[in-house]
Each structure stands twice: as C-alpha cells, then as structure tokens.
Specification:
The chain is mainly α. It has 2 domains: 49 residues, no CATH class; 132 residues, no CATH class. 64% of the residues lie in helices and 3% in strands. The chain contains 11 helices and 2 strands; from the N terminus they run H-E-E-H-H-H-H-H-H-H-H-H-H. Strands 1-2 form a two-stranded antiparallel ribbon. The radius of gyration is 21 Å and the shape is elongated.
C-alpha cells in the first residue's frame, strides 16, 4: 500500500504539477506549480495529458529535451526537436552529407532500390512504404516548422507525433545495426 501511495505521489511531481515549497527544506512540503494552477483554471483535463507521454518510452536521443519541452507546454518545439532528431539520426546512420536534408534525405536514405537504410530482404512495396513513412513524417511535422509558425496547442496530438518520432528513431537504430552487421560479416574476417 505504501508503495502505491508513493507511486501515485510521484506522478504529479514528475509531470511538474507539484513542486517543493521554497520556504521549507527537506522536500516534505509541496505546492502546486504555476502550470498546475493554470491548468486547473483553464482545462483540468489538460493536466492529465502528461500521462500520454511517459519519459521512459521515448527514444534515448529525445528522452530528456523533448520530454521537458512537452511538459512545459512547448508542444510545437518538442515536435520539431523530435523530428530534427530523426533527420540527424538518418543522415548519420546512412552516411550521407550535411547537404542532404528533409524529405530528400529521407528519400535517399530509404530509396527502395539504393537506400543505405533500406531493408532489401522485404518486398519492394514494403520498402516503398517505409520510405513514404519517413518522407511523410518529415514533410508533415518538421518542414512546416521551418517555414511558418505552427500553432500546435493540443497535448494529445503532440504526444502522438513525439511517439511516432520515437518509433522512427528505433527503426533507424535497427537499420543501422543491420547495416553494421552486414558490413562486418562481409569483411576480411568473414572470408576466413
């Protein structure tokens, strides 16, 4: 029972809804954060949206920064940073140049015939779909932030896009590992 109470108490602290009282030391006295007070006045259900983006399920490359931005209600910046992390990860994993950016980078990295991150073991239609997934994500959620102000104020939508980014980053990790595995098995040691 005590563990359940401690877990329940940890959630509002982790969501930055409860903070240490500045006049008391020892972290025993808490008060509602400005965010919690604002949310309770504006939309109490919005405070619950923080549960939709648990920190531990995010990819390590976006876990700290993107999670913190999201919980400070900076949804547009959180989404942009998550998508930028995909772009950087794809470029690095594919060994492409810094001049390769955006949807063209995704198309090059996941090209169904020549893409360095393409899984040639699957059918061409699946390779095309994977390429379209990456191109669509970057084109829909990163590029607009570069060209105009994007008013993203829905915490649920932002959480969904960030979770998509986490998934895409895991795909990049898997393809990078597969690429490294195939190059090490075709090296001089493999000829053996």
């Amino acid at each position: 029972m005590k563990l359940a109470i401690r877990e329940a108490w940890a959630w509002p602290e982790g969501a930055a809804l409860l903070i240490d009282h500045p006049r008391f030391h020892g972290n025993t006295t808490k008060l509602l954060s400005r965010r919690a007070r604002r949310l309770s006045k504006e939309d109490p259900n919005r405070a619950l949206s923080a549960r939709r983006l648990p920190k531990e399920v995010l990819h390590p490359s976006i876990r700290e920064d993107v999670w913190a931005l999201y919980h400070r209600d900076e949804y547009d910046t959180a989404v942009f940073k998550a998508m930028k992390a995909i772009e950087v990860a794809v470029r690095d994993a594919a060994g492409l140049s810094s001049g390769d950016i955006g949807v063209k980078l995704m198309g090059k990295a996941f090209n169904s015939e020549t893409g360095p991150l393409t899984d040639m073991e699957v059918k061409k239609s699946e390779r095309d779909a994977r390429c379209a997934l990456f191109v669509g994500a970057i084109g829909s959620y990163k590029n607009p932030h570069l060209h105009r102000y994007v008013d993203l104020d829905d915490p649920d939508e932002a959480a969904e896009v960030i979770m998509l980014a986490a998934h895409l980053l895991r795909i990049v990790d898997t393809r990078c590992e597969a690429r490294q595995g195939s190059s090490s098995s075709s090296g001089p040691e493999a000829a053996g």
